User: Which sequence fits this backbone?
């Protein structure tokens, strides 16, 4: 144990010694990022949500010299901005300002980081919002996000990766202002921070920034090892029964051994883009489930965490992770109650579209495992990706963010390196990666659905009951014979279901 702690301390010190620069002499902006290697895994047991609360109070509070309101009034004419973002393993503070105002804005940067006020009034304001999120918002605002967080809760159950970064209902209610002050001193230190700066800045500015960061606490936090995802035996389904759910929102997942650190990740990226590139209509899942059958809004797959996928078309920086998993996102599908209300011809159905869509998605993935990509699909997808990844980092803030993420994965500039990796990948490499890392027999599935759908869907899954697609007569009459023939195959496709449980919505994230 002592050796492990020493190694983790050394890793933190190495992280702190890094300064990432993105010089842009013609830019009219300066961006500063401070990435702390802590994140929600540093939350003490029983205090889940403390890192999120601490970061929120830094950027949502004042300094020793100014209140939060005074800061906002002061920076408004500058069009300056700042925010914090917490993920599982890192917390990042971002500051942006026009070069003309960097001298005036800098005291805000140094003040928030070195002398955050941590007042009782700011604490009460911010913790109310966080408590409301874990008690209400996550369950009520978006079933898609709900199912995604529920999947992580299931996939990482029993580890420090399990809880949402916002915490749990019981834990957030115990957090105090003293907890925040102590946590900031212990885990936001000069020994676990990486400095990033981009834009049109001077050597004098960078020297001052580095000097001030060294004024942070000298504590050397013993960071816990990142929790590893549980390995499912068979397909384990957790259905969350919710009153008045919009439909059935589905997330599936299982552990994935590789991350951006591995060159092989580029090959798997091509396969994943073909199967389910986020928000792209050319992907296989989208075409099969949404475009051909009009079942929902979209269907996508992922080989790493995709932050706020419901809001962003492109991946965001600031969420590097060493514990990885594969997932499929099936956006909400109609339930039996809705279909019966709309179409008289469907009055006898017991289950909506969830079982059929799940079967179709897993079957499509299995077809790739068995058959691989064709030469034509490989070339088209790789060509697309080599252009598409350049859109990830369009602004100085995004470019700097991905550079910091690159250091987390022991890379220098992953976006540039990825293009070179993609250029070298062969069809054989991609199909080998598919066979090595993809499978459909062992995974976790979370489904958020209406109370009326929960038990019928659970029984259908447990018994592998045939799930014919429920079309309206009008829609079915316009479908080609080959689609209907494929539907018949999908309806009988066997899933390796081992366990199905139903959890009341009120019992989640406690």
Assistant:
């Amino acid at each position: 144990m002592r050796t492990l702690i020493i190694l983790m301390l050394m890793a933190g010190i190495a992280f702190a010694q890094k300064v990432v620069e993105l010089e842009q002499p013609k830019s009219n902006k300066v961006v500063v990022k401070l990435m702390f290697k802590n994140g929600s895994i540093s939350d003490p047991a029983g205090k889940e949500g403390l890192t999120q609360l601490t970061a929120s109070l830094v950027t949502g509070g004042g300094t020793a010299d100014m209140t939060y309101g005074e800061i906002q009034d002061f920076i408004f004419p500058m069009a300056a901005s700042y925010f914090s973002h917490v993920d599982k393993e890192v917390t990042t503070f971002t500051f942006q300002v026009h070069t003309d105002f960097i001298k005036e804005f800098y005291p805000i940067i140094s003040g928030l980081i070195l002398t955050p006020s941590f007042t009782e009034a700011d604490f009460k304001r911010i913790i109310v919002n966080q408590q409301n999120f874990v008690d209400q918002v996550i369950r009520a605002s978006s079933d898609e996000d709900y199912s995604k967080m529920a999947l992580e809760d299931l996939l990482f159950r029993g580890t420090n990766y399990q809880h949402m970064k916002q915490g749990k209902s019981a834990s957030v209610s115990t957090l105090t202002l003293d907890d925040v002050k102590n946590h900031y001193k212990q885990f936001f230190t000069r020994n676990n921070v990486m400095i990033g700066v981009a834009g049109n800045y001077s050597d004098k500015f960078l020297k001052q920034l580095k000097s001030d960061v060294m004024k942070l606490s000298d504590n050397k936090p013993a960071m816990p090892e990142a929790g590893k995802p549980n390995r499912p035996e068979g397909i384990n389904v957790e259905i969350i029964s919710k009153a008045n759910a919009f439909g059935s929102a589905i997330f599936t997942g299982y552990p994935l051994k590789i991350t951006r650190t591995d060159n092989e990740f580029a090959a798997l990226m091509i396969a994943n883009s073909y199967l389910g590139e986020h928000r792209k209509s050319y992907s296989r899942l989208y075409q099969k489930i949404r475009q051909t059958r009009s079942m929902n809004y979209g269907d996508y797959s992922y080989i790493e965490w995709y932050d706020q996928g419901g809001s962003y078309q492109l991946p965001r920086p600031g969420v590097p992770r060493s514990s990885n998993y594969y997932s499929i996102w099936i956006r909400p599908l109609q339930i039996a109650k809705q279909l019966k209300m709309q179409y008289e011809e469907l009055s006898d159905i017991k289950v909506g579209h969830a079982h059929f869509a799940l079967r179709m998605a897993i079957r499509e993935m299995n077809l790739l495992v068995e058959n691989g990509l064709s030469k034509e699909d490989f070339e088209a997808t790789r060509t697309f990706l080599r252009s598409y990844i350049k859109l990830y980092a369009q602004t100085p803030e995004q470019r700097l963010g991905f550079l910091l993420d690159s250091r987390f994965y022991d890379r220098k500039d992953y976006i540039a390196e990825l293009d070179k990796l993609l250029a070298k990948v062969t069809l054989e490499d991609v199909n080998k990666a598919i066979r090595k890392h993809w499978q459909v027999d062992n995974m976790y599935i979370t489904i958020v659905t209406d109370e009326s759908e929960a038990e019928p869907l659970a029984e259908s899954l447990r018994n592998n009951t045939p799930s014919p697609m429920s079309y309206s007569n009008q829609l079915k009459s316009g479908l080609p014979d080959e689609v209907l023939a494929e539907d018949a195959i999908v309806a009988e496709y066997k899933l390796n279901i081992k366990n199905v449980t139903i959890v009341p919505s009120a019992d989640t994230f406690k």
